[in-house]
Design goal:
By secondary structure, this protein is mainly alpha-helical. 76% of the residues lie in helices and 0% in strands. It is built from ten helices and no strands. The protein has helices at residues 5-12, 15-36, 48-66, 68-81, 92-112, 134-167, 173-213, 219-228, 232-262, 266-277. Helix 4 (68-81) runs antiparallel to helix 7. Keywords: Membrane, Transmembrane, Transmembrane helix. It holds the Pfam family 7TM_GPCR_Srab.
Amino acid sequence: MTCDEELVEKISNSNVLRLVEISIVFQHGSDLFLYFSNIPVCEKVPSIKRCLFTRIPYIFGLFCASYSTVFMVIERTIATKRYKKYENRQKILGFSLILGQIFMGAATTFAIFYKFDFENAQEFCSGSQSSDPYYVIVPEIVAILSNFLAFFQFGRLFKINRKIRVGDSANNLSQKYQIEENLNVVRILRAFTKCDFIFILIYFTMGIPFHLIGKHMDHAEYYALFEVIYFVPLYSLIMPAYIYRFSKKQRVERLNRVERKMQVSEDAYFQFIHNQWT
């Protein structure tokens, strides 16, 4: 799969991406200003408004992204079950899946902040400080289980599409294209799902114990350990590199398959045409 310069340029110039970058610069820039200024220590505590302004978009984006594999597997499941007519479907399915993903991200964010202390400022700006830790733990467990099911379903879809390709010879050209497209997309999305599931499993599983014992720990130790497991920036570098390498490998394998098919002798080719006509 070659690099789509137009797509990369659209992502790089995305207003959403710029909004995230600006919010991150604002958050860390204001932190540096507070830490290096001569303001009294107790006044350096992040305000509730600033904390919510920076953490709510982060929590929403984190969980919205964590459900991306779930809705992708739903789309591919529908494409597999209705492969004979899927190419001519309306755009309403895509819009519905996008809205569903946004709803899950918003619902999870609402649940996490439902028991948030909006009255007292925190020593450390975090979205996981709920008076009831289960309002944070349950959404994380749901995200882990849903991604596990998505990863399992992608494996089933790959086997189903291979079985359809081999077994049903009455498909027309459009249906055969849809089957091949399902196989190619599932291969790449399965790799993405595997990487994403490993991240979610490690990140959320490591965070769950801290939510349970956080109330009984010293605040300084709690926040220090909380930052240790915070490897989202590292993951944001690993994921694109992994997907790019996997996509490149798939592209090479696809080209090799095409070359092998082109090496079929002319006699075999004309014999195949003869069998189709007779």
